[in-house]
Design brief:
globular; 29% helix; 9 helices; Immunoglobulin-like; six-stranded antiparallel beta sheet; 26% strand; eight-stranded mixed beta sheet; 375 residues; alpha+beta
């Protein structure tokens, strides 16, 4: 058995030990409160006052254990084989994290798993400040999130989409506008409904009369040709399967990070398809990394904007760009792109919120963007 295989087997053994031990831990008389995403009845991870998080792992044979929250925290070993650590204060909302056991990153079996960072990841939810309720389920009418499978001619394979339908959809004879909403790189079509809490955000906005009831199609952006997937497969499927309005005035397209670039490419290529465009934590590459689209590819979109400035300015009722502040890894790309827009004369709205390149920023972006649609 190779050294790497032995390490993986050992890592899986440690994970089983974590499961056995945490299943016996009850959150009675423990400090703080358990994370929303803990697997019942596990007591850890726990949220402490000041939005710090504490973790506990049983791994008696491990040599080194860490928690990876973007920043790596070394865990301290105790005589009983448990490892513990407490983090710095964390921002409110959703955060991915991993266990690193002797150098191998694994999902924490004490947490629900989420597809992110191109693998199954763990998640921790830090409470929002008192009075911020729009990311929590309220006593209001609720919509549904449906999983629909369709055969993609582009991929020559079966694919799925997650679709939010608003409260009363099944009982209503009306048709609804559609927001096509894209995830980021290393994620998939489940991201917006789980990490993003799309249904909760829209249910609360609709209940307050702040957003128009709408269908939201959350698509798999991991496509060899996203434009073909969107225009030839997804939009026809949605318009055939759901009670939705047709025409550009009833379509919106938005996405985060990679999905933001896909949104830019699709909406600039086919402006006759959408009246509302949302770009979250994204922007065309100011300088493309090696192996990705080069500057010439990006320039074709700037050329289209320059040659058809009035058409885009008149055709997009909302061209909305949001960013997570200077800590957002896409910040510079976005600033360069908006400067080019200013030089060309393209109209847009910019919104910035602290939080970096993270789901709390993208939840806030959807919360701000959705009320602007279809009015």
């Amino acid at each position: 058995m190779s050294k790497m295989v032995k390490r993986l087997v050992s890592c899986l053994f440690f994970v089983c030990l974590v499961s056995a031990v945490t299943a016996q831990q009850r959150p009675v008389d423990l400090p703080g409160q358990p994370s929303d995403y803990n697997v019942r009845p596990t007591g850890y991870p726990r949220i402490l006052p000041g939005n710090r998080a504490t973790f506990r792992v049983k791994a008696p044979d491990a040599q080194k254990v860490q928690i990876d929250l973007g920043k790596k925290y070394d865990m301290q070993r105790h005589d009983n084989g448990e490892w513990t650590c407490t983090t710095d204060p964390l921002g409110p909302g959703f955060h991915y994290y991993f266990l690193i056991i002797d150098g191998v990153s694994v999902a924490d079996p004490a947490s629900r798993s989420f597809y992110g960072c191109s693998m199954m990841s763990s998640g921790i939810e830090i409470p929002y400040a008192e009075g911020i309720n729009h990311f929590y389920r309220q006593d209001v009418p609720t919509g549904d999130v449906r999983i629909k499978y369709y055969f993609s001619q582009t991929a020559n394979d079966w694919k799925r989409m997650f679709v939010y339908t608003p409260p009363g959809y099944d009982q209503s004879n009306q048709t609804y506008p559609v927001l096509y909403l894209q995830h980021g790189g290393g994620e998939d079509e489940s991201g917006w409904s789980s990490q993003g809490r799309t249904d909760i955000i829209l249910d609360n906005l609709i209940a307050k009369g702040e957003a128009v009831p709408m269908v939201i199609a959350m698509l798999d952006g991991n496509s060899r040709d996203f434009n073909a997937e969107l225009f030839n497969d997804c939009i026809p499927f949605v318009e055939k399967t759901f009670k939705v309005k047709k025409g550009k005035d009833y379509r919106a397209l938005a996405g985060l990070s990679m999905g933001g670039i896909q949104t830019l490419n699709a909406s600039i290529s086919r402006p006759e398809m959408f009246s509302y465009v949302g770009v979250f934590s994204s922007g065309w590459w100011a300088r493309a990394p090696q192996g990705l689209a080069n500057d010439d590819t990006t320039e074709q979109y700037y050329t289209l904007l320059k040659e058809n400035k009035d058409k885009y300015n008149k055709g997009f009722k909302q061209f909305w760009i949001s960013m997570g502040g200077q800590e957002d890894i896409a910040y510079n790309n976005c600033q360069v792109m908006m400067k080019r827009f200013d030089e060309i004369g393209i109209k847009y709205t910019y919104y910035e919120t602290p939080g970096g390149h993270t789901w709390p920023v993208w939840r806030e972006s959807l919360y701000r963007f959705a009320p602007l649609l279809f009015k």
